Amino acid sequence: MKTKTLPLKELSIAEIYNGDKATYEVPIYQRNYAWEKDEISALIQDVYDAYTTAPKQTYFIGTLVSFHKGDQVYEVIDGQQRLTTINLVLGALGVYLQNKLTYRARKKSNDTIQSIPCFEIDEKDYGIVNGFKYAKDTINEIVLKECQDGFKTYFLDSVHLIHYQVPKDIDLNHYFEVMNSRGEQLEKHEIIKARLIEKLNNADKAKFNRLWESCSEMNVYIQQKYPEVSIFGKHLCDFKVSSFDALPNVDENENTMKIRDFINYKGGNKQQEEKYKIDTFQPIMDFSNFLLIVLKLTRIEESGLKPKNFILDDKELIHEFDDVHVEEEFVKKFGFNLLRAKYLLDNYLVHHSNEDDTIENNPWKLQYWQQDGKKGYLKNRDGESDHQHKLVQLLSMFEVSFTARQRKNYLFYCLLYLFSSDDRDISKYYDCVSELADKYFKDVYLMAENLNQINTPNPGSFDNTVLCNNVLNFKPLNDNFDFTAIYGDGTEKSKGIPLFVFNYLDYKLWEKYANELRGESIKEDDPNRTDFFTSLGCSDFGLKVFQQFYFSRTRRSLEHYYPQANANGENGALDKEQINCLGNYAMIGSEANSSGSNWSPKTKLDHYLDTSGKIKQVSVASIKFMIMMQKCQDNQNTRVAGQEWIFTDIKEHQKKMLEILRGGGK
Hints:
Strand order of the largest sheet: 1-6-3-4-2-5
Helix content: 40-55%
Low-confidence stretches: 254-260, 270-274
Strand content: 5-15%
Mean pLDDT: 87
Distance between the termini: 82 Å
Number of helices: 29
């Protein structure tokens, strides 16, 4: 009997795009390219990690499923988001592509991906344009310059896909049904659950299962999924228990359930849950990465644990649990810590509401859920207090700076503080989070030994800095920092300035407003208001920008206010060194950056402050950027056209911003 060969091929990226002649066609029924910076950065980071740790090994990046239409045209059935991202990464690395990726019946998408890297076309698919920019920025942020050629070679030759060609006689509709149904393969967190739960007796299995399933829904307050007065108090807003054994028993016919049943079981007190409208939000972390944080919290007191070697990346979930001797006592401790950490995450950390980012509404909330009689509702953690507003800004500043769900060290530190705090006093909590931000800035981002050659923090630098003998140390040590020595002042090209620095600066600018002017009815000619704007280095542009300011997840691109395209150093133009410094950079939304990156400062001023809606105002609402544009506007009245933003302004603006960073916001 003849053996049927499976239509599977292992192909390198080079073979996909520069091997046998092929055209990969994305059909009309597939969605547009939708990966954001988080997904693109995660892919590049994963490949770079593989390159640096095992450069001679093959790294598998996933599967590509296609249907061969003939004439070497392959209709992409599954994997088009990854295939498009690979195309963008290759473009960012300057690799010529022989084989094309095309979009059926989508002229704008076709034209855009074929116009990489310049995009000199009239109508653009901004999903692809932004994706290319994210890929290029991430490579520059992560991959050392002297490693980029080696990384390029590794990406082409050692990164592989499994290409599955669907047989011609297959029923594609049936294939889609199979693809979209959940198979029997367990996810990593389910494997961990099975390992842990088998160590418990049946009664504790049911108890553990209930808390696990309740905690796994990361977009819902834990009290609504697990509404037990014995755990969360009369109003379901406190945390009353002190151990796993103190949790209420679960009567779910546990004596007849097997391990497999517990893994898949979604049981709970449905009657109690349905009493309340479920309040959902956009979670800042997925469950697998949350389990890693809880594991680190559980093990932090172990004398042999080296926190810097504990990797908060769900790729390492099973590996990190492999290092644990799992027995009943550990399982109970971990289960209890999981429930406590979920309560603290939901009620003491910020969440993003299910609303779009707009200029009028801050979507970041620091709220707790409570029950009052038959009703459940949300309340601000500390009302409308000064600490409430500052904590929302601080915590969301951290979150937009570290959006990748596998690298949230700040979240671990906040939860570790809350774990060790008895009263959780809001003013003490604010002081600690504020000190943590200062410590990140001064002791990580301004210590050369903690940074690589492109000024990105080295692996382990946060834990080495914040944890002393596995105990939190938030007090900044490097008060006499030399910012220019690391990030430059325009006399030579900067090696890079991380996004955290700009977000931290925006927070300090807002904090200065909050400390000096917020809540006051101060007229434009008031001496305090005049002094405030003088310290910023520009004329008065009103207080509305400060009143409406929040950290939008859309503002994640760095903009050269004086554009790179004009920086040739000829005929009075600035040069590349002068424009690559803090004084000329600003945070901006990718949409605005893609639209106007090559505009002159004056043109950017006219377009970015246009209220017609062509550019979303939230994209350009960075306080630092508003100061730069106001200074440019101030100069229009005293200078000739084209001289509204020159190197003198860049230096002066950087000087003013450094004064803020040195304590001008206090």
